[in-house]
Each structure stands twice: as structure tokens, then as C-alpha cells.
């Protein structure tokens, strides 16, 4: 029994010695580390050089749409004085005929009358007045009643500088002739009232229907108020910018139309209200016209009747 115990003890000692030997690192050895999966090898890709043959898809650049063409600006009005000298003989036939409703289209003499409608305009009317003064020319201004009320200083200046004032209705209704007689009469009387308030010594001897839409009834009522009805012989259509454009193209159109159509005795229609191209065109037209024609304001007639009651 004792022998067996001794043998077992020997084996236990041998086992313990083996365990102790395994737990110590060997000389020059390293402490083992946990094993991990190796990182995949990455082969760097070189950027293609210009010499490398590669198929590169072409990319069309995105082109922004072109901006819209700017609207033509009115030509800048020159401040240089206009020279209206010289004299050129002309042999064109005298203007004749009558307008709608028996209205006048000519002056009844070889003289030419320039007329400016729809004002007074606080911006453009002073400019055309300045041009007329530089050339020593008188004209006729067919003014709208409510604009005469709102710009009395312009009416005062027109009269003071020797131009003729013309009634162009209260608010430029194209269908004025279709209104009843009482309305038409009040419309014209109130327009005269505003003109005479600003220029007490003036005479309102003429009437022009809005759009030239005369009827015999309209002509008759104007006559009863002491006014002759005037149409025109030359219309450059300076108001039709939708057809003729704006800026330089309109200026050139106005000049060409007036020079082509004017005759001795012509009444020429133009517009000062909101028409800067017309003002620029007359810097060229005034010297051209004055060299060929006598330019007049339509002559005054007896004083207009006293204005009636205001419009309701």
C-alpha cells in the first residue's frame, strides 16, 4: 500500500513540474498575441497619364439660356440748341379735303400747323416747348381736361409762349360721340373750364375728338360751344409702338412719315403725352419743316363761351 502511495506521489510531482515549465517563456521568445485575420492587400491604382489609351465618355457642358434682349431705351434728349435756319423751296400740292363729321384737315392756307395731343405731360411737354422756342415756332396743343386740371402750370406756359390751346375732351373717351348730348356738352365745358382756370386770357377755339372719332353731332355741339373741330392731314402714328417699335426705330419712323406726307396747308398730328420718341424726332423735324414751310399755331377765334357746371 505504501508503495502505491509513493508511486502516485512521484507522478503528481512530475505533472506539477511539467505545468510550471510550460508557464514560463523561453529565453529570447516573445509573448504570443491574439491571432487576427490579415488585412486584404490593396494595390494602389495609378492616375491615368495623358499617354495612356483610355475611352473617356464626352460630356456636353450645360449652357445657360441667353438672357432676353433688353428693351430699346428712348434716345437721350440732346441739350444742344437746335439750329432752324435756311430756306428750301418746295413744290408739293396744297393739302385739301375734310375729315369725319365735316372736321378740318388743313389750315386753309399754305402754312403748316403742328398739333400735339393728350397732354399736358409734366415731363415731355416742357421739352417740346423748349424746342419750339429755340426754333421760333408756334404750335397747337390739344389738351385733356383732367391733365389740364392736374398740371395747370403747363397750361399757363403754353398760353404765355403764344401757342394755341385746343379742347381734347375731359378724359379721352374714344366713344364720346356715343354719349348723350348733355354728357358731351358737360365734358367739353369742363375741359374748357380747367384750361381757362390756368390761363384766364386764353381762347379755346378748337376741339379734337379722342382718336379723331368725329360725328356730325359732335362737331355740332363743339360749334355751339364756339369751337371749330380739327382732324389732321398727316398722322405719323407716333402712338403705335406695337407696330413701329420704340427708341431710335420709332424716331426714324416719325421723321420719315412727316417728311414724306406733309404738304402746304397740312395739319400735322403728334403726341407729347408719354411719347419721348416724338420729342426727339422733332429735333430733326423742326429745322427740316421750317426750311420748307411757314409753321403756325392755328389762329385764335372769338373767346369761348363761359364754362358750364362740372361733370357729376
List keywords for this structure.
312 residues, alpha/beta, TIM Barrel, globular, disordered C terminus
What report would you give on this structure?
With 312 residues, the protein is of the alpha/beta class. It has a domain of 197 residues: Glycoside hydrolase/deacetylase (TIM Barrel), CATH 3.20.20.370. 35% of the residues lie in helices and 9% in strands. It is built from nine helices and seven strands. Strands 1, 2, 3, 4, 5, 6 and 7 form a seven-stranded parallel sheet that branches. Helix 5 links the parallel strand 3 and strand 4. It is globular.
Write out the CATH superfamily name of the domain at 100-296: Glycoside hydrolase/deacetylase
CATH uppermost class of the domain at 100-296 = Alpha Beta
Coarse morphology: globular
The overall pLDDT average reads: 82
Separation, N- and C-terminal Cα atoms: 149 Å
Percent of residues in β-strands: 5-15%
Structural class: alpha/beta
Amino acid at each position: 500500500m505504501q508503495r502505491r502511495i509513493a508511486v502516485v506521489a512521484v507522478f503528481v510531482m512530475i505533472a506539477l513540474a511539467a505545468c510550471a515549465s510550460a508557464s514560463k517563456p523561453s529565453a529570447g521568445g516573445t509573448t504570443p498575441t491574439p491571432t487576427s485575420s490579415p488585412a486584404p492587400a490593396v494595390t494602389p491604382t495609378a492616375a491615368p497619364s495623358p499617354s495612356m489609351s483610355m475611352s473617356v465618355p464626352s460630356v456636353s457642358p450645360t449652357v445657360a439660356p441667353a438672357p432676353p434682349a433688353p428693351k430699346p431705351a428712348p434716345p437721350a434728349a440732346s441739350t444742344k440748341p437746335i439750329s432752324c435756319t435756311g430756306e428750301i423751296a418746295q413744290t408739293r400740292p396744297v393739302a385739301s379735303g375734310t375729315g369725319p363729321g365735316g372736321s378740318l384737315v388743313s389750315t386753309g392756307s399754305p402754312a403748316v400747323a403742328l398739333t400735339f395731343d393728350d397732354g399736358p405731360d409734366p415731363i415731355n411737354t416742357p421739352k417740346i416747348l423748349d424746342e419750339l422756342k429755340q426754333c421760333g415756332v408756334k404750335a397747337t396743343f390739344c389738351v385733356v381736361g383732367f391733365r389740364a386740371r392736374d398740371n395747370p402750370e403747363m397750361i399757363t406756359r403754353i398760353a404765355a409762349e403764344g401757342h394755341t390751346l385746343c379742347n381734347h375732351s375731359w378724359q379721352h373717351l374714344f366713344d364720346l360721340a356715343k354719349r348723350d348730348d348733355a354728357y358731351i356738352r358737360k365734358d367739353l365745358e369742363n375741359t374748357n373750364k380747367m384750361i381757362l382756370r390756368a390761363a384766364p386770357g386764353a381762347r379755346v377755339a378748337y376741339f379734337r375728338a379722342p382718336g379723331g372719332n368725329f360725328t356730325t353731332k359732335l362737331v355740332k355741339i363743339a360749334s355751339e360751344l364756339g369751337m371749330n373741330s380739327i382732324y389732321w392731314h398727316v398722322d405719323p402714328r407716333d402712338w403705335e409702338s406695337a407696330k413701329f417699335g420704340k427708341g431710335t426705330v420709332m424716331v426714324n419712323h416719325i421723321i420719315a412719315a412727316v417728311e414724306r406726307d406733309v404738304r402746304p396747308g397740312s395739319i400735322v398730328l403728334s403726341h407729347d403725352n408719354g411719347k419721348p420718341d416724338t420729342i426727339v424726332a422733332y429735333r430733326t423735324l423742326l429745322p427740316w419743316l421750317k426750311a420748307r414751310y411757314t409753321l403756325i399755331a392755328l389762329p385764335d377765334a372769338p373767346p369761348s363761351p363761359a364754362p358750364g357746371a362740372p361733370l357729376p
